[in-house]
Amino acid sequence: MEHVDILLKLPGPSLLRARAVCKAWKEVIDSPWFSNRYRDPSPYILLPSPNQEGLPLCNICHLVLGKWFKLEFPSTYIQSVSQSGLVLVREGRVFWVGNPFFNKWKRYSLELPYAKFDHELATLADDEQGYRVVFRVRRFMQTAVLYSWKSEWLVTEERKEDIKMEDFAEFVTSSSTVCGNIIHSIGSKNKVALLSCRVDNGKVLSLCYLKLGSEVLEGRFKLFGWDGKLYLLGENDSHLFGLFEIRGENVVLISWAPESISTKFPFVRSASIYNNTIYCIFQVKLAMLVTYNLSKHGSWQVVSLPEPLPPCIGILNIVKFSLDLPFGLDLCSSY
User: Fold this and answer.
1) Deepest of 70, 119, 144, 289, by most Cβ within 10 A of its Cβ?
2) How far apart are CA 255 and CA 244, in angstroms?
3) How many helices (H) and strands (E) does the chain have?
4) Which residues share a beta bridge with 69?
5) Percent of the chain with pLDDT over 70
6) Tens digits of residue pLDDT in 66-116
C-alpha cells in the first residue's frame, strides 16, 4: 500500500497522469475508498492560453506546490467557475459545462426565444441537485434560467414595486450563487440590487436594493454563498475594497481590506471560497491573488503567483479539483 500513500499526496493533474500508468493504479484512484480520502491541498488558478495548433489549452497553477500544469479545454474563453469546480466556457452561442480535470464536457447551443441576450453575463451556479446557467435577457425585465438536465428555459417576468421599472430594465446579473433552493443574483448600473428566485420554477421571490447602513449600496461586487450565508466582495471608485455579509436587505461589513491592498488591487476579476478561505483574483496589468480567512478577522494576504506567468488571453479564475463528477452528471468525454 506504499504506492497508495504516494498517490494520496499527488496534486490533481499529476494524479490523473498516474491514473493512466497501469490498471492497478487506475482501479485505486477510481475507487470510492480513495475518493473519500484524497484531499488536494489547494485550489487552482485557471489561466486561459492562446490556441496552439488549433487546440484550446488552459494553464493550471497549483498554489501550494507553485507549479503550472496544462489541461485541454473546449474553448479558451472561460465564462464562469462554480463552487463545486465545474467550469462554463463558451464560443459565440455555444456553451460547454464540464470538469476540466477529467476533460468531460456537455455542449449546449443557445436557443432562446429572444433574439437579444447578453452572453457576457452568463454565470454558472450549482447546488446539490445540479447546475444552472443564468443569463440576463435583453427584453423588458426578464431573466432566463437554464435547467441543464432538461435543456429547458424558465423565464421570470415578475418584478417588485420597490424597484422602479426603468431601474430593473437596467439590472445586470454580474454574479450568481445558489443557497438551498434559491438562486441569488446581484446586479447594478449604479445601485446594487439582489434578485432571488426559486430553482425549480424560476419564480421571483424578491428583488430589492441592498443597504449598507442607511445608504443604498453602490459599486462593483462579486457574490458567493458559503455555509448558508451570502457574502459580497467588492470595490468602489475610490478603490475601497472589503468583505460584506448580506442579511435580508442589509449589508453588514465584515472587514475592510488594508490600504496596502485596497489601493493597489482595486478590481476583482473573480472570487471563490475553499476551506474557509476566500480567494480573490485581481488583474489590471499584472495578475495577483489576495486571500482572506473567514475564521481570522482581518487576515488579508497577498499571494504571489509562481513564475514564469504563461501568456494569457482571458480573465483568471479559481477552480477546485474533484475526483467525482458533481451530481452524477452524464458529461461527454468529447466536444
Assistant:
1) 144
2) 7
3) 6, 26
4) 60
5) 72
6) 888 888 888 878 888 877 788 888 887 788 888 888 888 888 776 655 545
